[in-house]
Task: inverse folding
């Protein structure tokens, strides 16, 4: 039976970044999000798992396209602080360098907020739909 490649299955450290073109911007000011991604074993071409952090999580469902590089495309859905959150992700599995030393498997990509959701104290402000950021995930040692 064909399944999701072992390379992808497991827990990944996730970080997303604002699209700030100022090379002098403080690195800490670029953070959009951080957490973990768990990619579950499953049928070939199927992407399932969870993205999560302290007090929040989104169920992940999507697909894997086998190629050079592998492409993952998935949607995260969940309720956070009483509000529905939906984000769409696309990512590309970074190929291993033949001369790389201690290279950790990585996925790089882009994220878009699919629907608006409240943010801030008491959910007063709204995070607009269509907001785009970049993301990277590196595989954790299991």
Result:
């Amino acid at each position: 039976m064909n399944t999701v490649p072992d390379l992808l299955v497991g827990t990944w450290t996730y970080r997303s970044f604002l699209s700030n073109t100022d090379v002098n911007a403080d690195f800490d000011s670029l953070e959009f999000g951080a957490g973990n991604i768990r990619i579950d074993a499953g049928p070939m071409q199927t992407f399932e798992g969870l993205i999560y952090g302290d007090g929040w999580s989104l169920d992940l469902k999507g697909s894997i396209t086998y190629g050079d590089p592998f492409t993952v495309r998935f949607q995260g859905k969940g309720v956070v602080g009483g509000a529905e959150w939906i984000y769409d992700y696309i990512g590309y599995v970074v190929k291993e360098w033949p001369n790389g030393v201690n290279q950790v498997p990585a996925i790089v990509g882009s994220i878009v907020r699919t629907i608006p959701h409240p943010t801030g104290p008491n959910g007063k402000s709204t995070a607009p739909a269509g907001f785009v950021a970049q993301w990277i995930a590196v595989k954790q040692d299991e």
